[in-house]
Write a structure and sequence with these properties.
It contains 39 helices and 14 strands. It is elongated. The protein starts with a helix and ends with a helix.
């Protein structure tokens, strides 16, 4: 039974279109998310490891190496068993730093573009035999189905044409699957679902062929057992021990291939969003591989029992043709096509990404701000996909039929084996450096190329390599010699060169980032930036306007920051995040070069200071992953941190560049500045009074400063300041302790004030006694004068003298009361006081001072407004207010007194055109002994008495300066008093 080439072509195209439709529906969210995101989908997608070799070549592999063929399946299963110490840490590193390929990982760890470039080049050499296997499988299986036993004939032209057609079709589908757009995180969910579907197809195909082969050839499994019993040599050959280190080395090779092959690495790390998927895969994938490995031996035995004449690799296809079941034949053909196409698509995508990042971009990159770098990268990647598959086809053409599927598989795995020392060093050897890695990798690949790659084209046997191997092996096991020697040379050069060459600071930092605990101690650097907006402007020079805006916004969204951010810590985080994001697009080496060029760290005095803020943040995220001693140490750290936070005094830790590293809760309460708003910012970036206070203290030579007075928005604060330097190794912080003693200082001031009042009271009592007698005498003489003359002027003068002596007595009495109590004694008796008359009398008294400034007083108070009060005391209020207004005014200025009725109150204003009163002083002008006048020209008691009189009369007094209608000068005093009952009625 044969199928026409057209039929096979349409079957293949239809199947690939079905895979594409599945991928497209997934990306368009047409499939249920519960199905798409199910862990089993990811596990099945990892079945891409079982390429076309698992469908066809495994049978020939089993015939040659017996039960050792299981190493092909055990290798990746062993890697999954080592999940906690191998795959999980690698996944964490790759996700944290957006590393999507093995070349990205090695370039990041060894901080070398050469490491990435060589890794890409050598990986390409190692996987081209793998690509040739897939092309060979499709072309030869197509030839078998279309021409029967055609492999025994001479039809190279037909095979080559089939291979070329397959390469063209798979190139188109590779671009459609993974390179239609430049995904921000290089994740293709549709591709994962399509690969899961193809894994189901190839599993069904292999299992059904195995079952049908047993039933059709042996009748049943009992028949198979009888055949094995009658042919004991079959089992004896399978159980025969392999020569030398064949079995052990084969396991190591496939173990290395399971991590280092580009398509497997891509699926394990780049396409895997969650570590939990790896946990599921650690048992799910071995179960899948067990299922597809079970039919291998029954197919081998059925092919031998049937006497098939085709190559052992294609026994599954030959058996389906013998059975003459078109559906089974089509299914096994689709299984091989599915496995081969999946491996080519993922391998090519991964290799194209590596080539773009590590081969093309280091020597060729777009320039100019108007270049769309995303489009350029996309087109370049598509061209690389075409080139990689073309080279794979050329490789297939050059080797022809000289190599079996088993030989090509072993050669490819041997090439990937050379990366195993580097991968292990990423996690477990911080002293490894780029020099050792490059030397070891180059030496190993030279041996591998001389022993396995070049002989594929020349058919010359490099027998000189056998002298480097201690055991004697058959020629067809020469790959054991090459793999052993290449791995030994690789490891030796790697270790020796790393030990005897210097490891750079960059490599040490990267090694810490790759350690298993993931709790490295990053250094704190300085950026020559003032705000986050400058980052976008600088990126435009390297990425163009569109890409710069996209990457800048993406970093801000991921970090939940804004472009007005000025904190050095936040700027460092944005820079690092942009570099990490660019790594997923252009690789870590190119991303680092771009960022170091446009956003370089400046030389500073920070030295090796740790970025303590970043460490704290990472510890908070990592807390649930800590166990044992690490968890205990973290608990101790949290205890001490909370103790610092709960201290009743402010604690502030600063770097030598005055970056704020710690700002505890007491510091936040004292300054009214939240810790989250200032941590990671410069000290100069906080509000002015506090910045000036701390900066001036740090600039001085003082270690302590007591009773430092600071004027803030909430009033005066008194502080005790102390500072010290951190004595810990690797830390260069300054510790500032701030103790708020404002309450204590205010209490001291109050006690001092009370003492001053008591002294004044004693003085006032004596003065009142001494003044009282003369004043009484003056009042008696003035009263007698009214009886001794009838001159009107003299009588008026005598009356004024009597009134002023009464006023003197009232003032002295008020002063004594104020000195004893801090305010005037409350007056119980009130009377109706006419505001206009009271103001007029105060103006008249002030006018008697011929030495004072000549001022114009405008008394605009209505004649009918009377308030409840005391005439003498209100007279004292107006005299003090008008006197102060006069002192603040220039010659011939105008002072206006207004009053209006606002039932049940009267509102009075005194307005001058003077210089005004500073906003900062307005809250203090009614305090006793506070004055802005020159020494000797004021006691500071006038406005205090005014305030107490108005307050005692049940009124209110306030100040407004400057006067709004005057602009920037003038003062207006507002007084509210209760209207007299008669007036209010």
């Amino acid at each position: 039974m044969t199928l026409s080439l057209n039929t096979l072509f349409f079957i293949g195209i239809g199947y690939l279109l079905l895979l594409f439709a599945i991928a497209y529906a997934t990306e368009r969210q047409l499939l249920p998310s519960r199905l798409v995101n199910h862990p089993s989908v990811y596990v099945l997608s990892l079945g891409v490891y079982a390429s076309g070799f698992a469908v066809y070549g495994a049978v020939g592999f089993a015939e040659r190496y017996g039960y050792s063929f299981l190493n092909y399946y055990i290798g990746i299963s062993a890697a999954l068993i080592l999940l906690p110490i191998l795959l999980a840490p690698l996944h964490q590193i790759c996700k944290s730093y957006r590393l999507n390929s093995l070349a990205d990982l090695l370039s990041f760890r060894f901080r070398s573009s050469w490491a990435g470039s060589l890794a890409t080049l050598f990986l390409a050499l190692a996987v081209w035999p793998l690509l040739a296997i897939q092309i060979k499988i499709v072309s030869e299986s197509t030839l078998i189905l279309s021409a029967g036993d055609a492999l025994m004939g001479d039809q190279p032209h037909f095979k080559n044409l089939t291979a070329l057609l397959f390469c063209v079709v798979i190139t188109i589908f590779t671009i459609l699957f993974g390179s239609r757009n430049l995904a921000s995180k290089d994740s293709h969910r549709g591709l994962v679902v399509a690969l899961a579907f193809e894994s189901i197809i190839k599993m069904l195909a292999i299992v059904l062929v195995g079952i049908v082969a047993v039933v059709s050839v042996f009748g049943s499994f009992d028949g198979l057992q009888e055949w094995l019993n009658s042919n004991p040599d079959v089992l004896r050959e399978l159980s025969a021990p392999q020569s030398g280190d064949t079995n052990r080395l084969m396991l190591i090779m496939f173990f290395a291939a399971s991590v280092c092959m580009p398509h497997v690495f891509h699926m394990l790390f780049a396409e895997n969003p969650s570590r939990q998927n790896l946990v599921t895969a650690s048992w799910g994938l071995p179960l899948f591989l067990l299922v597809i490995s079970l039919p291998v031996l029954p197919i081998l035995w059925a092919g031998k029992a049937s006497g098939l004449t085709i190559a052992t690799d294609y026994f599954a296809l030959g058996l389906s043709l013998n059975i003459e079941n078109i559906w089974l034949t089509t299914l096994i053909y689709l299984g091989g096509l599915s496995a081969a196409s999946g491996a080519i698509i993922v391998t090519t995508l991964a290799l194209a990404s590596m080539s773009l990042n590590h081969l093309v971009l280091p020597i060729l990159r777009p320039k100019g701000r108007n270049v769309d770098i995303y489009r350029w990268l996309l087109m370049t990647r598509q061209l690389l996909i075409c080139a990689i598959i073309l080279i794979g086809f050329i490789f297939y053409e050059l080797i022809g039929d000289t190599q079996t599927l088993t030989n090509l598989t072993v050669a490819s795995a041997g090439g990937c084996l050379q990366f195993l020392p580097g991968v292990l060093a990423v996690l477990y050897w911080p002293r490894a450096n780029r020099n050792g890695f490059i030397c070891g990798l180059t030496a190993g690949f030279i041996v591998w190329a001389l022993g396995l790659l070049i002989p594929m084209f020349t058919n010359e046997h490099p027998a000189y390599l056998e002298k480097l191997y201690i055991n004697s092996l058959d020629r067809d096991l020469f790959w054991v010699v090459v793999a052993s020697v290449s791995l030994g040379v690789n490891s030796a050069f790697f270790i020796i060169v790393s030990i005897f060459s210097e490891t750079s600071d960059e490599e040490r930092s990267a090694a810490e980032a790759c350690t298993l605990d993931d709790l490295n101690r990053p250094s704190r650097h300085t950026l020559n930036l003032q705000s986050a907006g400058e980052i976008r402007q600088r990126l435009q020079e390297a990425l163009g306007d569109h890409a710069a805006e996209q990457e800048f916004r993406r970093a801000l969204d991921e970090l939940q920051l804004n472009e007005l951010e000025t904190r050095p810590y936040a700027l460092r985080r944005i820079r690092d995040r942009i570099e990490i994001n660019l790594s997923s697009l252009v690789g870590p080496s190119s991303a680092r070069r771009v960022i170091d060029r446009v956003l370089p760290y400046t030389d500073s005095v920070l030295g090796s200071s740790e970025d303590i803020t970043y460490i704290e943040e990472r510890l908070e995220r990592y807390q649930t992953n800590l166990t044992g001693l690490a968890a205990d140490l973290d608990s101790l750290r949290r205890y001490h941190r909370q103790t610092l936070e709960d201290l009743p005094i402010g604690v502030c830790a600063l770097g030598r560049d005055q970056e704020i590293l710690l700002w505890n809760m007491s510091m936040a309460d004292i300054t009214a500045i939240k810790s989250s708003d200032v941590t990671g910012s410069r000290l100069s970036g906080i509000s002015a009074p506090w910045a000036n206070c701390l900066i001036s203290f740090l600039a001085s030579s003082d270690l302590h400063r007591s009773k430092f007075c600071l004027e803030t928005e909430k009033g005066l604060r008194w502080l005790n300041l102390h500072r010290t330097e951190s004595q810990m190794w690797g830390r260069d912080e300054l510790i500032v302790v701030v103790e708020d003693i404002t309450d204590t200082q205010l209490l001291e001031h109050e006690l001092t004030h009370q003492e001053r009042l008591a002294s004044i009271g004693r003085l006032a009592a004596g003065v009142a006694h001494e003044i009282g007698n003369p004043v009484t005498g003056i009042a008696c003489l003035a009263q007698n004068l009214r009886y001794e003359t009838e001159n009107p002027d003299t009588l008026e003068t005598a009356s004024q003298i009597v009134k002023q002596t009464q006023r003197i007595s009232s003032i002295v009495h008020s002063l004594v009361n104020f000195a004893h109590t801090g305010r005037e004694a409350p007056s119980q008796a009130t009377e109706a006081v006419n505001i206009r008359n009271c103001v007029s009398e105060a103006i008249q008294l002030l006018s008697l001072d011929n030495e004072a400034r000549q001022i114009h007083y405008n008394n605009n108070c209505p004649v009918d407004i009377a308030v409840q009060g005391d005439t003498q005391r209100l007279m004292q209020v107006f005299i003090n207010l008008l006197s102060n207004a006069r002192d603040a005014s220039s010659d011939n200025a105008i002072i206006t007194i207004n009053a209006q009725s606002d039932t049940p109150n009267a509102r009075i204003t005194v307005t001058d055109h003077g210089t005004g009163i500073d906003q900062k002083l307005q809250d203090r002008i009614f305090e006793p002994f506070f004055t802005t006048k020159d020494p000797g020209k004021g006691t500071g008691l006038g406005l205090a008495l005014v305030y107490n009189i108005i307050n005692d009369l049940g009124g209110e007094i306030s100040i407004e300066s400057p006067v709004p209608e005057f602009g920037s000068y003038g003062t207006r005093i507002h007084i509210r008093l209760t209207l007299n009952d008669t007036e209010s009625n």
